Amino acid sequence: MRIAVVGTGYVGLVSGGCFSEVGIDVTCIDIDSEKIDRLKQGIIPIYEPGLKEIVEKNILAGRLHFSTDLTECLSGIDIVFLAVGTPPTEDGSADLSYVIEVAKTIGKNICNYVLIVNKSTVPVGTAHRIKEIIAEELSARGCHVDFDVASNPEFLKEGSAVKDFMSPDRVIVGTDSERARDLLDRLYRPFMLNNYRVIHMDVPSAEMTKYASNAMLATRISFMNDIANLCNMVGADVHLVRKGMGSDSRIGNKFLYPGVGYGGSCFPKDVKALINTAKSHGYRMKVLEAVEEVNEKQKRVLFEKLINHYDNNISGKKIAVWGVSFKPETDDIREAPSLVIIDLIQKAGGVVSVYDPIALEGLRKNINPDVIYAKDMYDACIDASAVMLVTEWKEFRIPSWKALKRLMKEPVICDGRNIYDRTELKNEGFIHYWI
């Protein structure tokens, strides 16, 4: 079997690398020639544990290839995966311009049966639109070529994407033909030899499943953050509340951890897109509108605890920020709460000293140069009036409190992920704020 993956971003590169790992001949395609040249050398543009090793191994094995030309790759290809970006537009809807462009290219060039599979996160009805575009291009050529369009949304977690792909919880496949269904069954069989977890459905349902899944997880996060803020007001312990809730088998304990809000490339974009899809059909997703509102406010909560501690005056004070990626084990800072927090500190006159094990380079490209980039977590805290824990990287979990107290000007900890023991910090002489 030969497949092409269009787009070498997070989804495309992980998918292409993992498909090649099970013996499939894969060509990953991107219009960025510099990026493709670097990938041919095994230079990975993103940080994702285990991905670099898989890419290097399969390039050497001759199973993984990279190209800038989709046209020359179409001959003899069985499946084309679309993994191009669908960024939000100003109104929150998904920008489908890249998807449409690829569909046109396929329609202008295919000469044999091809299954086009959408892995990009797209609104319901996009597969139907792709089918129409390809059919129009074929008609303009005056030729008939059989093809199918399917939906196969990704459910990869940044930081564990390789593991998720190689051993998935489930694989959602939306098709409207037996030929497409059989081809995708054959493709995914190597990933689930011991436990077949492919869920087949119609194409619109598969497209909706992706959005509904991410929206539900985002809802749980915002709900728990709302509960945490109320706990703070009424004197309840959110840790105990979460434990009590999570022990109910109908609820479970996943995604019930309060914090500084969700970020990344999926949840914010998908919540906005689903709200917009509903609006385009004359319906309001009132719950999701509230989820989004709560999340935007939650990104300010840790800063508000800091500024309240200092009676609304942090001018000239050095504030250390630990962690800038939106979650551990990734360099992704898209929609990260850290960006909001850093901006708020600077606007209030504070001096930001920041450390992250992986994501500092991305921060340099996205924020003004007044930020101090520390060489390690302790360097960030020299003469700091407070430490703000924003991303719970493992190396931040058990710091030396005695060393920190010697380094810092004032012993204030703002714990945005609730990972520190309040009693321990009190005994070490720290003032501790948490969510």
Structure notes:
The protein has 16 helices and 14 strands. The protein is 43% helix and 14% strand. Helix 11 runs antiparallel to helix 12. With 435 residues, the protein is an alpha/beta fold. The strands form 3 sheets. A 6-stranded parallel beta sheet has the order 3-2-1-4-5-6, sandwiched between helices. A 6-stranded parallel beta sheet has the order 11-10-9-12-13-14. The chain has a two-stranded parallel ribbon with strand order 7-8. It has helices at 10-21, 33-40, 51-60, 70-73, 97-109, 126-141, 161-166, 178-188, 203-234, 238-246, 267-280, 286-309, 337-347, 360-364, 401-407, 422-427; strands at 2-6, 25-29, 64-67, 79-82, 114-118, 147-151, 171-174, 198-201, 318-322, 351-355, 372-373, 386-389, 412-415, 431-434. The model has no long low-confidence stretch (mean pLDDT 94). It has 2 domains: 2-201, Rossmann fold (3-Layer(aba) Sandwich), CATH 3.40.50.720; 208-435, 3-Layer(aba) Sandwich (Rossmann fold), CATH 3.40.50.
Give the helix/strand layout.
Blueprint: E1 2-6, H1 10-21, E2 25-29, H2 33-40, H3 51-60, E3 64-67, H4 70-73, E4 79-82, H5 97-109, E5 114-118, H6 126-141, E6 147-151, H7 161-166, E7 171-174, H8 178-188, E8 198-201, H9 203-234, H10 238-246, H11 267-280, H12 286-309, E9 318-322, H13 337-347, E10 351-355, H14 360-364, E11 372-373, E12 386-389, H15 401-407, E13 412-415, H16 422-427, E14 431-434
